[in-house]
Amino acid sequence: MAEMNTKDFLIGSLIGGIVGASAALLLAPKSGKELRHDISEQAHAAKEKTNEFATNAYEKGNDWAKYAKEKSSEIASTVSEQSSQVVDKVRDVASSVRKEAEAVKDDVSDLASDLANEIESAEGEISEKVKKEVADIQSKIEEVEKSK
């Protein structure tokens, strides 16, 4: 069985009540004056009930609107709070990465400097060894020439 819409039910009940009351008034054996008086009373009662229904609907609509506004404000503040936390975490991570990059850069610079010093030191030692070997070779050549 399909669900019945409350709004449709209320409208149907109201229309059915009006039609039923009108039929009862028109079919009842009364004089014209009494019939007009009864119709006027029923019309007044229907108008009051319609106004009451409209007022209730307006109040409920305002209540729902207020509720929706409160909930949307809560959701907005929660989203804002969480996005602020995410932004802060991203900033922290970015700062940490920057610091680590600087440390790596400093380490690379230190290693390059140490390597340059080692190369310079090794060049000096190699140069001294080459000079010594050249001097030894020259002295041997001189000895060989003298011995001839």
Description:
There is one protein chain. By secondary structure, this protein is an all-alpha fold. It has one domain (7-147). It is built from two helices and no strands. The protein is rod-shaped and about 170 Å long. The termini are far apart. The model has no long low-confidence stretch (mean pLDDT 84).
Q: Would you spell out the secondary-structure blueprint of this structure?
A:
Layout: H1 6-27, H2 32-147
Average of the residue pLDDT scores: 84
Tally of DSSP β-strands = 0
Helix count, DSSP H or I runs of 4 or more residues:
2
In angstroms, what is the radius of gyration?
52 Å
Q: Which quaternary structure do these chains form?
A: single chain
- Which structural class do you get from the secondary structure elements? mainly alpha
Order of helices and strands: HH
Protein name: General stress protein
InterPro entries: Desiccation-related_membrane, YtxH
Keywords: Coiled coil
